């Protein structure tokens, strides 16, 4: 197969590599040449500020000595660079009067910041939603551990994605310690490092991957014309409007869809060095990250965070390049000085297709972020998720499905 240059990629405005081939491009060039999806880009424009708001909110709620919880403006100013508050803490806080309230404490001769009543209400709703779904949280964590080749993960890796998985902030006590028949913590060889592992009775538990449920649903649809042999190893693909799909790329994707592979919860077995074996390993890696994203509350995660699981999941490929190689499954955004990957099939017009209570609460906080300085009241706090699914889309430019 000929090696294509970056010039050829940009000429055809098709950043995706033909599956199984490699271009003479650096990783930075490959990211820069990808096709931009305007829907996800608009969503990340909002999320990049939401992440800063969440970081400050966590600092405020972690200081229970004050009633109500608050932090000094001096403290936040010292963390401005770490929190990426380019114009300083005070300027950032004033942009969101519906979330933060700045006040002066005459007893301490200092200026403090606390959450507004609306922001506190959203925070409580999220905590209540998490506490009401602890059974689902346990199942999520068991599935994550089951994808590991050793049925165990470094605890520090789990800490990286606790919010994405919808875990309570005290999950070591509320989830791990209270379910000692499922989880156990063991000391690692490194100092001050713990390994979270499944108990012996849980190691043989079998799971059905999310993509397998989709295949069954596709085959059971009325007037289904899908060839079962075609869909047996397939994944759902969709592409943004305006993205040109050349004939060779379509053919390669169709060929890739037919490739057999080992599922995310199955034993990998011996690695084969043949071309078919290497492509099978790549498809298994796609299956693992697809299932990982399906386990997250918002069907999205930072690439840097998921990279901490590469060794445990036996993924020998560059995770970021894997997302770029499969633009019909994943979308990679670079907004906010971070690389964030979305599971395409989970979203429609910038909103989650099947929302959950935790997502709904977080979306309300996003509403407050988008509101900014506008002096309007939110008459119906749950409007964002309902609008996504009914009449009023959150974002323009919806994606299109294209079966290959």
Can you lay out the helices and strands and say which pair or pack?
Blueprint: H1 6-12, H2 27-32, H3 38-61, E1 70-72, H4 73-78, H5 89-94, E2 100-105, E3 110-115, H6 117-132, H7 134-146, E4 152-154, H8 155-160, H9 171-176, E5 183-187, E6 194-198, H10 210-220, H11 228-231, E7 238-239, H12 247-257, H13 275-295, E8 300-302, H14 303-306, H15 310-313, H16 319-325, E9 330-333, E10 340-343, E11 347-348, E12 351-352, H17 357-371, H18 383-389, E13 400-401
Helix pairs in contact: 3-17, 6-17
Pfam families: PORR
Protein name: PORR domain-containing protein
GO molecular function: RNA binding
Give a quick precis of the structure:
This is PORR domain-containing protein. The protein has helices at 6-12, 27-32, 38-61, 73-78, 89-94, 117-132, 134-146, 155-160, 171-176, 210-220, 228-231, 247-257, 275-295, 303-306, 310-313, 319-325, 357-371, 383-389, and strands at 70-72, 100-105, 110-115, 152-154, 183-187, 194-198, 238-239, 300-302, 330-333, 340-343, 347-348, 351-352, 400-401. With 404 residues, the chain is of the alpha+beta class.
Give structural notes.
The protein is α+β, with helices and mostly antiparallel strands. It folds into three domains: 46-118; 120-204, Arc Repressor Mutant, subunit A; 210-357, no CATH class. It has helices at residues 6-12, 27-32, 38-61, 73-78, 89-94, 117-132, 134-146, 155-160, 171-176, 210-220, 228-231, 247-257, 275-295, 303-306, 310-313, 319-325, 357-371, 383-389, and strands spanning 70-72, 100-105, 110-115, 152-154, 183-187, 194-198, 238-239, 300-302, 330-333, 340-343, 347-348, 351-352, 400-401. The strands form five sheets. It has a three-stranded antiparallel β-sheet with strand order 1-3-2. Strands 4-6-5 form a three-stranded antiparallel β-sheet. Strand 2 and strand 3 (110-115) form a beta hairpin. The two termini are 21 Å apart.
